[in-house]
Amino acid sequence: MDASDAILRTAEHYSKQWGAELGFGSFVKANPEAARVMPSRQLPWDLLFDRIRTTANLQVTRVYDAACGFGDVLNSLSNPDMPRFLHYVGADIHGSLNTIVRPPRATFVQADICAPLVGDHGPFDFIICRAAIHHTRDPRATYRVLAAQLATGGTLAITAYAKKAPMREAVDEELRRRVVPLTNDEAFAVANQFTSLGRDLQALPGTIVISKDLPFLGIKAGSYKVQEFLYKYFLKCWYNVAFSEEHCDLVNFDWYHPPYAFRFDAGNLREWAEDDGLCITREASTEAQHYLEAFRP
Ligand SMILES: C[S@@+](CC[C@H](N)C(=O)[O-])C[C@H]1O[C@@H](n2cnc3c(N)ncnc32)[C@H](O)[C@@H]1O
Predict the structure, then answer these.
(1) Where along the chain do its domains lie?
(2) What share of the chain is helix, strand, coil (3-state, %, to 5)?
(3) Per the count of CB atoms within 10 A, which of 91, 156, 174, 188 is most buried?
(4) What confidence tens digit (pLDDT) does each residue in 176-235 have?
(5) Dist CA 213 CA 20 (whole Å)
(6) pTM given for the model
(7) Which atom of ligand 1 is nearest to the CA of 142?
């Protein structure tokens, strides 16, 4: 698949994923407790959002949400109210931006974040690129483009997919190789098989006990539920009872279908920031994603 085909397919994928028909944004707003399982809720985004809100209640603060998805970041920044001096611009390539509710001083543009934002928007005091840089063709180059749009003293915060155990990486690669070429509807139907498998495995009683660390295999000693063990080390098959069947499918669709879904070590992200002259202020990792926050001195 060439680069222009990949970007069209990425846009098409997320137009469905964030479209009104699946209503994921409304689900997340209406079910904040259920949404706590999302990787974005397990990394220190709230600390950054509090800082942005505090600053933006005192002085003009320009925020660029690069690959803003269904507007979840804006929702956090503008809740319970839009800070007085916050100027927010969200960019994404999908075609469902019109479904996002816009408070005052919030703008959305349909644009590719791999190129500098066109128009009179930057430089920015905060740039956020949450769970998206890995979906671009050359994430390292994308980071450089984002960093170049920071004001002096400005903060760039990203999360990127983390590398998994070797068996899980191998299976992901092969299954993604098969799912990526499918149409949206075909891939969404296939995603349901992962949901179904996840649900059946979660229903199994008992535990798997691993008596010692197996570093070559990337497996840690411990006691695991069956689905948890397989999910962590062998195959993503997401299921959560607090999500509807369709929204479980959406999570599996999100993993297997976008054309690019690179995974990284935390050190890769650190190198990008340092090579671009930024100072790292916060790092955090879960098994799913790495978080890196850095500012331009
Ligand atoms: C998993 S979603 C994350 C959305 C949002 N940042 C969040 O955390 O809720 C990934 C987003 O990246 C967007 N995306 C992927 N490649 C892009 C590109 N080259 N330019 C702009 N947006 C892109 C997709 O359309 C999708 O909305």
Answers:
(1) 3-163+263-295, 166-256
(2) 45, 20, 35
(3) 156
(4) 999 999 999 999 999 999 999 999 999 999 999 999 999 999 999 999 999 999 999 999
(5) 45
(6) 0.95
(7) 19
The pLDDT of residue 34: 85
Question: What is the best residue among 49, 75, 77, 93 to mutate for testing ligand 1's pocket, by most ligand atoms within 8 Å of CB?
Answer: 93
Question: Which of the pair, 236 or 40, is modelled with greater confidence?
Answer: 236
Ligand 1 centroid distance, CA of 196 (Å): 26
40 ligand 1 Cβ < 6 A: yes
pLDDT at 125 over 90: yes
- How far, in Å, CA of 225 to CA of 115, rounded? 44
The enclosing H or E element of 10 equals helix 3-17
Domain 3-163+263-295 has CATH 3.40.50.970: no
**130 pocket-lining for ligand 1 (C-beta < 6 Å):** yes
Residue 39 has a pLDDT of 80
Distance (Å) from CA 12 to ligand 1 centroid: 12
